[in-house]
Amino acid sequence: MGRRADLRHSLTRLETSLNDSFASTSLGHHFKLGPRNSTFTRELRAGLATFLTMAYILSVNASIIADSGGACPPPASDTCLARTRADLVTATAAACVVACAAMGALANLPFALAPGMGVNTYFAYNLVGFHGSGRVPYRTALAVVLVEGCVFFTLSALGIRARLARLIPRGIRLASAAGIGLFLAFVGLQAHVGVGLVGPDPATLVTLSACARTDPETGACEGGRLRSPTFWLGALGFTITAYCAKRGIKGSFIYGILFVTLVSWVRGTRVTYFPNTPIGDTNYSYFKRIIHFHPIKSTMGALSFNGFNRSEVWVALTTLLYVDVLDTTGTMYSMAEIAGFVDERGGFEGDYVAFLVDSASSILGSALGMSTMATYVESSAGIKEGGRTGLTALTVGLCFFGSMFFAPLLTSVPPWAVGPSMVMIGAMMMRTALDVKWGDAGEGVPAFVTMALMPLTYSISYGIIGGLMVYVALRVPDWVVEAVRWVVKARRSVGGARNQVAEAGGSGGGGDGRPPEGV
Questions:
Q1: Of 28, 30, 401, 512, which residue is most buried, by most CB within 10 angstroms?
Q2: What kind and span of H or E run contains 201?
Q3: Can you tell me where the transmembrane regions are (predicted)?
Q4: CA gap 390, 249 in Å, rounded
Q5: pLDDT of 288-328, one tens digit each?
Q6: Which of 194, 193, 191 is nearest to 221 (CA)?
């Protein structure tokens, strides 16, 4: 026990010395470690926590965009689709490297960026369609993303985006952070990117799941509920994360994810990520390569402006812009709210540069063959670990750079390892709801609608729109009354002025109202 205590004390002194040394350098002053009450090692842990929470985007985004068929000529062959997916894994990592590094170095904010979930689904399945069966070809769709990114960048550069964001009422802004937490927890409870506790139901839409087996087409539960081994492993990971957070242990998110991931990598168990199936064997063969770099061959620079005279193109451009203005901006403000950056005017330090970086990253994404980029709600994992400066985002970017060479490992993190952290983040993000004035229905009701609609509509932007609509509806009667009062007051003022003019005219004439003599 004595040696262990001495070792712990020595490591603590070494960490303190390292933090003090870095804080006194020019980099420490640039990142404002002192003013923001953070340290170098804390920022590194925060960046690693954010990366591990969002590393799933490497494989998920690549799979979604590859379902569009990419640049493969129809009918897309399996070989071409596999090459496209490998291209998109590298493209996703490369875009994250540049975007996170820019956010950290230029804006000095702990926000991580990656291809937006939801937008990539719209891009792949609605716009381009499965294997190119949609309304807009893949290459033209990339050009749409490029143009939308340029428009979004212009709005950000002119300050219009910041002004629009500051128009969002305080209650809705606070509720957005809590609503995103509920949304994130709901995603983490589902099967595709979570633990699978919640599943579909034809009567009630959702129900308790974690089934031993599910119907691949309908998702219906088979073999009994709460009998999924991977769910219980994920639940254990959640317990580890929550207990570490309760005890204030640094790196709580990292420990939960690593524990579940390492257990899931063992073959021959009921919780393995590599079952003895054709897909499991293929994934395990790729996993065993450990180190592998795949250069981008088909998606980089694949955009084309042919077909811009079609109405579908402009509808898609408008849709993407609307999602970016509301969804992405709302997410960034919510992350700033959680970090305690937002001031009384509704802004935060570095917001202008952050908006520029955020919008410019979408231009980069289109050039690499993907949909728009966005600030990720998983940034809250690093913020909860204490990340308060751009060093957190730089660490995330560095991790994504390493992922381009260790893709076999990082694309093998199972969803039931990531899901518990997403639920935990959602629980922590509910704190902002305490600041909503629930006793004031004018603020509380729009805030509640915002929070409820985000998970129930599976859309952050729909939640913000719903909250704003209720806010306006509750304010319209007051505005009408104020307008009527103003009109009545104005009319009284005009009437009074006319009376004064008439009296002045009467006093200037004779006693009988006629003009004075000599006039």
A1: 28
A2: strand 198-201
A3: 88-113, 140-160, 172-193, 229-245, 252-268, 352-377, 389-410, 446-474
A4: 23
A5: 888 888 899 899 999 999 888 888 888 888 878 877 777 77
A6: 191
